[in-house]
Amino acid sequence: MELITLAHGSGGRLSHELVEEVIYPIFNNNGGQDLLDAAVIPVPVQPGKLAMTTDSYVISPIFFPGGDIGRLAACGTINDLAVCGAIPKFMSVGLIIEEGFPIRELKQVLHSLADTAAEAGVSVVTGDTKVVEKGNVDKIYINTAGIGFIPPGVNLNPQNIKPGDVVIVSGTLGDHEMAVLSCREGLSFGIEVVSDCAALNDLTKCLVATGAVKCMRDPTRGGAAASLWELAGQSKMTIEIQEAAIPLHPSVAAGCSMLGLDPLYLANEGKLVIIVNPEGEKEIIARLKNHSLGRNAAVIGKVANQDRSGKVLLQTALGAKRLVTLNEGEHLPRIC
Amino acid sequence: MELITLAHGSGGRLSHELVEEVIYPIFNNNGGQDLLDAAVIPVPVQPGKLAMTTDSYVISPIFFPGGDIGRLAACGTINDLAVCGAIPKFMSVGLIIEEGFPIRELKQVLHSLADTAAEAGVSVVTGDTKVVEKGNVDKIYINTAGIGFIPPGVNLNPQNIKPGDVVIVSGTLGDHEMAVLSCREGLSFGIEVVSDCAALNDLTKCLVATGAVKCMRDPTRGGAAASLWELAGQSKMTIEIQEAAIPLHPSVAAGCSMLGLDPLYLANEGKLVIIVNPEGEKEIIARLKNHSLGRNAAVIGKVANQDRSGKVLLQTALGAKRLVTLNEGEHLPRIC
Q1: What is the ipTM of this complex?
Q2: B57: which strand partners?
Q3: pLDDT digits (tens, 9 = 90+) for A196-246
Q4: CB A216 within 8 A of CB A272
Q5: How far apart are CA A240 and CA A176, in angstroms?
Q6: DSSP 3-state assignment of A289?
Q7: A22: buried, middle or exposed (CB in 10 Å: 19+, 13-18, 0-12)?
Q8: Exposure pattern of A285-317 as b/e (b: 16+ CB <10 Å)?
Q9: Confidence bin at B103 (pLDDT 50/70/90)
Q10: Distance CA A234, CA B241 (A)
Q11: Among A111, A17, A76, residue whose Cα is nearest residue A270
Q12: B114: alpha, beta or left, given left = phi > 0 and alpha = psi -120 to 50?
């Protein structure tokens, strides 16, 4: 078996062999459960809440500096659960593969997904494989859905946001989109930019334990601007941020100024926007700086005391104030 | 808004508008939960088990006699949960849409998905939308993942299968694949064949309540042959079936003989293969015949008393016996 054929999606012998010989062994090491059409999962006895999420990944190219579509598919779904305060536990994997796709690359991508999930303590419990004719999908698209358990007492919600709360980002912004952009277009801006693609559930667990986190978002498509815009709208609070306080990798800063991009709108795959009560700020920053995924964390703003119009205001490096809204137009397609 | 553009997948203003104005209203009627990136779901207090499943739907054409890709995406995932004995409860929806896809058709497909889920008592709680450039996906692919609760005491497992058990199908075989094939190729075999695409969870609940069901499968890709082959392999029992006992729609029978297809290998989207203990056979058949989705149910075979080699034997209408294995080659691509 070297290339994926339509017969691998037929439900017949070759489908069965692909699942049994290629896919099953990669995920079977990851949690010890059988990979069935529907997985049966014991529910923990303590009462609590489930979190459920899904994302499809259509990134191009499928291998990029700092990751690949498999790692991204694991991280993205884990992070959507983690920012709800959930402990991610179970994941499904749906593959849509182009006829002719090399099985070697399929294995590479799935190993990457399986390893990332396993490191994060997440079991891949069920999956599905479809094959479509050449030209009807670009190499491989992956959907993952995830289930997590929200511990009793954890309730992260934009409604918790109050005037005076502090706005923190867990590190440099824009690394993922700039890494994909530069490898896609063959651009270079000094030191190579590497995607920040990472599973954040260990970090979020450590932050939530302080009791100081009001709400979190992982700023993917649309960037930190979209996350802040949503949080402001949902809480009806005005968020004020300082452009000069936003941590940036030097090459992302260079790339943005060369290409006329705003790093606030660039996608991240391993960063948090965190709203924290002011008393907890020091402890949160200390925990972030002490974690490998939060070393470059910074306070970038606060929730306004007076203005409750639900908008985001940016004080630029030159001292002007401007409104942060959602980006117009298409930006870079297929970054995740 | 008439056609989907890349900007609808950007994470910016148009993405937000698509979700808020088109997608959210369709699903918000369906369970009363907010459609968030990750949904928070209360866990029922009684101990029990969760079932989780996923499938991607890449069917072509997206509208076919008896259904569309939206209805299929709801039914397929509901049925994967139902055959485990689970009560399907929550669903995620991941869309991958081609640039230029008409928003009118998107709405039609999503309404169909939402209505089917609602009728089956399933809430669509979370979702994701990606847009890719024209030519990198064929119109729209949909992934759904589902969660169900397995009531205490329910344990449907091939290990339960014992010699003497009865093999039942819930109705005519092959309707879905023949309907797709005939509309794709413009073929006609007498009365129009309509896909059997339907949510089976009400029927399965009613059957499981008898206590007589050992194990069930929904025979989709690969047909009843693949389901029986898997059950025989997993239970290490030999299953003997009678070709003459298999219920067939007259047009499916005509199409199969004209095209040289075996209905046992054709995909279904609203049928069950059920293994039942012999004492429960009458009650199960009565309940099937009494349900709109089981009217043409029939006993098609039994589990052999002696032979435990884990194979499937078909007694043909002419009296010969042949081995049923998985289909070779590609069959019809993109039937689900």
Answers
A1: 0.95
A2: B142
A3: 999 999 999 999 999 999 999 999 999 999 999 999 999 999 999 999 999
A4: yes
A5: 24
A6: helix
A7: middle
A8: bebbeebebbebbbbbbbbbeeeeeebbbbbee
A9: very high
A10: 59
A11: A76
A12: alpha
Handedness of CA A198, A202, A204, A210 (dihedral sign): negative
Residue A260 CB neighbours (<10 A): 6
Question: Where would I find the beta strands (DSSP E) of B184-247?
Answer: 213-217, 239-242
A42 burial via Cβ count (<10 Å: 0-12, 13-18, 19+): exposed
- Banded pLDDT at B73 (limits 50, 70, 90): very high
**A10/B327 touch (CB, cutoff 8 Å), yes or no:** yes
What is the percent of chain B with per-residue pLDDT over 70, rounded to a whole number? 96
Q: For the whole model, what pTM was predicted? A: 0.95
- Residue A91 forms beta bridges with which residues? A124, A146
Structure tokens at B261: 């297809």
Which two tokens mark A199?
């599973």
Alpha carbon distance B215, B286 (integer Å) = 18
- Residue to test with chain A: of B81, B83, B128, B155, most A Cβ within 10 A: B128
A131-135, B36-40, B186-190: which range is least confident on average? Answer: B36-40
CA distance B323 to B300: 15
State both tokens at B233: 């392999």
Chain A CB contacts of B15 below 8 Å: 221-222, 326
Please check whether residue A157 touches B, CB under 8 A.
Answer: no
- A94·B95 Cβ contact <8 A: no
Token match 């030191």: residue?
A: A191
Q: If pLDDT is split at 50, 70 and 90, which confidence band does B291 have? A: very high
CB atoms near residue B268 (< 10 Å): 30
pLDDT tens, residue by residue, A273-282: 999 999 999 9
Phi, psi of B228 (to 5 degrees): -65, -40
Helix H or strand E encompassing B250: helix B250-259
> With contact defined as beta carbons under 8 Å apart, do B167 and B241 qualify?
yes
Instruction: Give the count of Cβ contacts less than 8 A between chain A and B.
Output: 259
